[in-house]
Amino acid sequence: MTESLERTPSRYDDGYNGYSNWETWTCQLWLSNTEGLCKIAEGAQDYNHFVGMVQEIMPKVNGDGVAWLDPAVNRAEMDAVIKELKH
């Protein structure tokens, strides 16, 4: 029997817990629920600024192994998360 190499649609293709994908959701979760990361995010201008500050002092990946700079992370959604933390 030959196995198909065709990509099987994921149950997460249409979003994940209100975010565009799992990578964005997990980065948001770690950022929002880790006190030190929250404090850094409150001082950041946007997500890219946050990542620059975080990578100077912490691993380049979050606790789920997703790189803060993973191209799948939706920057606009993460900018909104940071903006919300400031209010």
Report on the structure:
- The protein has 4 helices and no strands.
- With 87 residues, it is mostly helical.
- It has one domain.
Task: Supply the key terms.
single chain; 87 residues; mainly alpha
Count of separate DSSP helical elements: 4
Number of domains: 1
Unreliable parts: none
**E-strand count:** 0
Largest sheet: none
Helix-strand makeup class: mainly alpha
SSE diagram, text form:
Blueprint: H1 22-33, H2 35-42, H3 47-57, H4 75-85
Helix pairs in contact: 1-2, 1-4
Outline of the structure:
48% of the residues lie in helices and 0% in strands. The chain has 4 helices and no strands. 24% of the residues are buried.
